[in-house]
Structures are given as structure tokens and as C-alpha cells.
Amino acid sequence: MSTNVLRTPDGWWAVRDEHAVRIDTKAVTTAGLLADRAAVREAAASGESGTPVADLVALPPVTTPCRVVAQMVNYRSHAKDSGFTGDIPPTFFRKASGSVSGPHEAIVRPAHVRFLDYEVELGLVMGAPLPVGTVVEERDLPSYVAGLVLTNDVSARDVQLTKTQFYESKSYPTFTPTGPYLALLEPEDFARLIDLRLRLNVNGVPRQDRTLADMIVRPAQALTLLARFQALDPGDLLLTGTPGGTALKAPPKPVEKIAALLPPALKWKAFFNGQAKNPRYLRNGDLVTATIATPDGHIDLGEQRTAVADAT
């Protein structure tokens, strides 16, 4: 059975239902905590009544600095929304770890960003080094992945599209809300990953809702492909893509063909004039809620509640 871990300004806690027991560890980083799994197990098995989780202030359970890597267009529903057809080559990009924020902190929209989008994603937290050249089979996942976190890959679409710049558009501070829980998995839990359901609402209205069955490149294959060129270490984070339902969608094919005939400046002007009418982009005061869990709650990464605020 997985163990949910919460991080607060006072340290680390093992979560049991609505209460949490402090973990007796000197670890200050996620990597340090993963090296002290005995302390986590001791707290989880403790007979203490614990502290109500509602009384604790959750910090991101992935500490920084760390590597934050993400997969692009990794759900069939998202590929359809994005206008992709046929085979999609697996693609990775980096995010600045300074973008990692807490599960209840505000998402701050920079003043120059007009089109702010959301992407609920399952995050894999590494528990062992992944050297370049590693081949990861499904049975090997427990040897490399320690646990899971709920993340939101917030995106400045106008920056991303006009500059074809993923790193900047997804790396502003607060653009990777993470947590509340780090779910530390036991080997038998990995068979349940396919049942995980990703959900994201904006102001209570459902926007994204899919299981991992919609995923194109699953975790073992993703780690193998990533390890062709990128090493990972304990505590590093891999975001595994988002399902369909984001604010950004590809224009209809006839419109896309006409736009291709325009000079770049006119093409982008026309595109963003159209996007300005899209009510799904995040705005000041919006509330984004997200969850990832199996239907039976065997794995439950908790709920994110993040308000959207304009930069002052």
C-alpha cells in the first residue's frame, strides 16, 4: 500500500486518512527523505493519533533545486486537441525548478502574459539514479521511481507559440504547482498506475478528465527514451504529459490552411485575436482544482486548490 507524505515548514509527515504523524528524520530534501524510508514506515505504522491534515500548511513535496523534465503531447486526447495526426515522436523539454510551488499557492500570471493555460499531469519522483543509457522495463519501475505527485504544468501560450519556447513559457515562478502528497509506492502498487484518473476543474467546471489508459508513452518507455541523453537523480521530477481539455486547441483545418498563406506577423495576429475570444484561459480570481487517484482510492495524490492572481 502506498504511503502519502506531506511536507510542511516544520518537516515531513506520514498521512493516515485525515491525520498526519511527524516523521522522525533529519532530511531536508526529497532525496534525503527517500534515503530514510525506514523513518517513513515507522511514522506510518505509529499508533499516534497525529495532527489533522487540515491544520498543516503543505509545501511542495519535491524540494528544489532539482531537475524538472516534462513530456510533450503524451495523451491521445491532447494530441487530437492539438491537431496532431499519425505517429507523434516522443519529445521532452525542461522546466526551471524555480517554477515549483505549493499545492495551495496562487498561480501568478506575469503582466505580459495574456493566454494562461493549465495542464494537470502525473509526476514521477525518482528514487534512484538513472544513468544515461539505462533501459527500463515495466518490471524495473520500482527500482527507479520512488513515488508520484500531482502537478500542473501551467503554460504561457502566447510566449510558447510565438517564440516556440517551452522553457520560458512554462518556467515562470508558480508555474508548476506540486503536491500536496508525495505517494511513496510499494512494488505491487505500480500495477495500479494505469487506473489513475486525472481531473482538473476551473471554478468548479470540469475541464480535464482522463485515465492513464489515454497515455501514449508510458513511464517505463519514457524513462528509457529520456535516458538516451539525460541522467536523473533521486528527487528529480518527470512530468508525464496532460490529457485533452486544455484551453488551447488547434484551429479547424480550413482556418489553419488559410493562415499558412499569411505572413508570420499577420498569422499570429489573427490567431491571437481568435484566442482572445476563448473564455477557457485562466484569469485573475479563477480557482483551479485538480486531483489524481485510482477509483478505489488505493493511490490518492490529494487535491490541489490554486487561485490565479495577476502579478502586481
From TrEMBL:
One of its GO terms (molecular function) is hydrolase activity. GO terms for biological process: small molecule metabolic process. InterPro entries: FAH, Fumarylacetoacetase-like_C, Fumarylacetoacetase_C_sf. Keywords: Hydrolase, Metal-binding. It comes from the Bacteria. Residues 68-308 form the Fumarylacetoacetase-like C-terminal domain. Belongs to the FAH family. This is Fumarylacetoacetate (FAA) hydrolase.
